[in-house]
Amino acid sequence: MAGRNFLFVPGPTNIPDRIIRAMAVPSEDHRSPIFGQLTLPLFEQVKEVFRTKAGQAFLFPATGTGGWEAALSNTLSPGDKVVCSRYGQFSHLWIDLAQRLGLDVVVLEEEWGTGTHAEHIEKLLVEDKAHKIKGIMVVQNETATGVTSDVASVRKVLDQAKHPALLYVDGVSSIGSIDFRMDEWGVDVAVAGSQKGFMMPAGMAIVCASQKALEAGKTAKLPRIFFDFGDQAKANATGYFPYTPSLPLLYGLKESLAIIFEEGLDNIYQRHHYLASGVRAAVAAWGLKLCAKAPRWYSDTVSTIVTPEGISGADVISRAYQRYNLSLGAGLSQVAGKVFRIGHLGDLNELMVLGALSGTEMAMRDVGIKIEPGSGVAAAAEHFRGSNSAK
Description:
Low-confidence stretches: none
Distance between the termini: 35 Å
Strand content: 15-25%
Order of helices and strands: EHHEHEHEHEEEHEEEHHHHEEHEEHH
CATH superfamily of the largest domain: Type I PLP-dependent aspartate aminotransferase-like (Major domain)
Largest sheet: 7 strands, mixed
Oligomer: single chain
Radius of gyration: 21 Å
């Protein structure tokens, strides 16, 4: 099919041509005397994206799942109690990983379409007089349902309870796209992935750990080898790695960070909110509903759209791909077949969003969803025309 695939899943995201060109490098000696000239600045610049000065950055050849494992295995011991709210497929998978590591996971079941309720966590913290809870795990942006949770509110209840538990945040589909403040919010370990807001191919888990988390690692007993912070820190100090790194991804990260800092983090957050609001205007014009139950939960990186009764979201996705070369996200687990997802993060602008909405409209009408032709595109276009957000 002629033309590029319109990639509007919530990750992997579109890769800017600048990053593609930057990654087209020959192999080189990753032990050379000058290798640190590439890598040492990256560790410091990544910290700026996480908005931490006190934390330490780690770059693993892995996906976000590897980052999850690194976060927990470096700071906890077998049988340690952690708390995690479950409100989507990715919070579910992180819980599953923690359980398989041998942790005692207290699962707070929340309605899908909502996120972390800080008041539910607060109750557990207040009752935990002996401080048996060692960690709180939060998925900041749940891509399965298009929900963003308030991380700062979780830190607030931790502080109010004077509880020493570590705060872990999955920021895979938020960091670099949605406001995230590691130091200000007292996050102890945060996890990102190269394939979302960093606009790169999948394959790099980007992790930042606070000094408190690094200190916890000195007595943590969970096994770790590939993901050992200690091994990484020792080698990273002079710009090297304990094993062969992915050179193309390191060069891609260098260019990604240049693009991010050229636009500015606050401008990136504003752009994502502006574009997401256009998508939400389209959904309203179609007469459809988001999976997110209320505006407080709306994600600025992905909109999960509920299909009408009797129509499968999978049919919309299949038609969009097969007929219009448009990739939309599938419903997962509890919402499989009931929704489809439009990712709107990374390298994109108004016209790209309008193209995706146009293809989505055609696919929906083809499978029998009764919407007014052009209604969503027009609503989004008028939102963009009338907004000063991107000026």
